[in-house]
Amino acid sequence: MTAPAAGSEAAEQALPGEAAVAAAAHRSLYGNARGLSRIWPFLGPAFIAAVAYIDPGNFATNISGGAKFGYLLLWVVLAANLVAMLVQAQSAKLGIATGKNLAELCRERFSRRTSIGLWLQAEVVAMACDLAEIVGAALGLNLLFGIPLFVAGLIAGAGTFTLLALQRRGVRQLEAAITVLVGVVVVAFVYELIDASPDGGEVAKHLFVPGFGGTESILLATGIVGATVMPHVIYLHSALTQNRIIGRNDAERRRILRFEKIDVVIALALAGAVNLAMMIVAAALFHGGGLTGIETIEGAYSGLQQLDSPGAATIFGVALLASGFASSSVGTLAGQVVMQGFIHRQIPLFLRRAITLAPALLILAIGVNPTDALVGSQVVLSFGIPFALVPLLMIASKREVMGELVNPRWLSILAGVLASLIIALNVFLLYQFVAG
Q1: How far is residue 116 from each of residues 98, 220, 322, measured CA to CA in Å?
Q2: In the chain, what is the straight-line distance between the N-terminal and C-terminal CA atoms, in Å?
Q3: What angle do CA 333, 335, 337 make, to 5 degrees?
Q4: In 275-295, which positions are buried (b, 16+ CB within 10 angstroms) versus exposed (e)?
Q5: What distance in Å separates the CA atoms of residue 109 and residue 115, rounded to the nearest whole number?
Q6: pLDDT of residue 102
Q7: What is the pLDDT of residue 373?
Q8: Sequential DSSP letters for 309-360
Q9: Could you tell me which of 144, 161, 139 has the C-alpha nearest to residue 59?
Q10: 15-435 is classed in which CATH architecture?
Q11: Which three-class secondary structure state does DSSP give residue 199?
Q12: Which residues of the chain have pLDDT under 50?
């Protein structure tokens, strides 16, 4: 393997965005870069995927857990985040190893009837995702500025149109914009965490020592783990890595995978830290302040005003708004990937955004409670998990598809056990939802 001729970094910076990233990536692959510049070209895909792990649905779940049980369930959030890292790394590897995304491989490996069925459920999942994110962003606008929910939904939809327009200037532009929004959420909860002055000893204890506080805590823990893996970003992550930086042989693909694993660890660690911060803040303020019955985002906003300050509530609202904008864009991109992959068709991204925006606006127009809408959308997302996770692990274990990046037997067994656990938890959640 011969290294390409080395050009100056200044010359690479003069290239168009995508070409510059590819050139910088190959410098890293051949050991001609050091420090942060070595990793930088590979960062991005996991940050887009990580948005799904700090979407408005996570706000309600984590805050409810902290308000009701204090620091008790922090270990559940940590465990769920580690599982998410494994799943997203598998999805990223699929794209790197095959140059195809999960939806395309499903179309090739399964029967036409199975592919159509997987596509239809994936479209429903993408719409449910969009519903949750638009409702969450609208709720943020409503809490911050008092804008009626339907009008706020229109504004939120317009905001995601603007974000998606960045893709025309290159995927790196979209990655940067979404990363900035994720940064807003991270900074907001860093502030909230410092302001809440949590008990460090209790945090350390419950972060690593498993425990429950009765049947209700078990049910809530089930919800946290069961709703962790988002099916739409399993499809999307493989699409983000499939042609981004192409390895010309097995050795290059292995190096690319090592860098992409760093991307996954950094992005999902940030998402996990945000989820932990949500629960810690709720535990310190609401559980410690006697407001243990908070179960809604509106309740959390009001509780922050009551127990902390209007400024803390405003920062919480800004974080919710940023989360809704970013995650809605991700849902639209995921919908485009599944359509193109499963049926080899696609529609203009802006038309898809308009179509998937309609159910959310309808929900807001008829006055459905926003939290109820969020819960309902999470149930639909839970239903879609097996239909993305099982094909991912099946294909990742096939040497004829994955080549040298095929999962070793031990990893296939571990991933299979974790997938079975996630699916069982989601079946239990669906049962509780129907029974309740």
Answers
A1: 22, 34, 34
A2: 61
A3: 70
A4: bbbbbbbbbbbbbbeebbebb
A5: 9
A6: 96
A7: 80
A8: -HHHHHHHHHHHHHHHHHHHHHHHHHHHHHHHHHHS----HHHHHHHHHHHH
A9: 139
A10: Up-down Bundle (1.20)
A11: coil
A12: 1-16
Helix (H, G, I), strand (E, B) or coil at 187: helix
Q: Which amino acid is at 53?
A: Y
Cα–Cα distance measured from residue 113 to residue 94, given in angstroms and rounded to the nearest whole number: 23
The tens digit of pLDDT for each residue in 335-393 reads 889 989 998 887 887 788 788 788 888 888 898 888 778 767 777 777 788 889 999 99
How far, rounded to the nearest angstrom, does the alpha carbon of residue 265 sit from its chain's CA centroid? 13
At 161-172, the pLDDT tens digits run 887 777 777 677
Q: Percent helix, strand and coil across the chain, each rounded to 5?
A: 80, 0, 20
Residue 133: φ, ψ to 5°: -75, -40
Query: What is the rounded CA–CA span in Å between residue 410 and residue 77?
Result: 25
Q: Give the pLDDT of residue 226.
A: 62
pLDDT of residue 29: 79
Is there a contact between 313 and 94 (Cβ–Cβ < 8 Å)?
A: no
pTM, to two decimals: 0.87
Shortest CA distance to 186 belongs to which of 273, 266, 267?
273
DSSP SS3 for 308: coil
What confidence score (pLDDT) does residue 1 get? 40
From the list 271, 373, 402, 370, the residue with the least C-alpha distance to 330 is 271
Token pair for residue 323? 């989360």
Q: Do residues 405 and 253 touch, judged by C-beta distance below 8 A?
A: yes
Nearest CA to 291 out of 70, 61, 60 is that of 70
d(CA 324, CA 269): 20
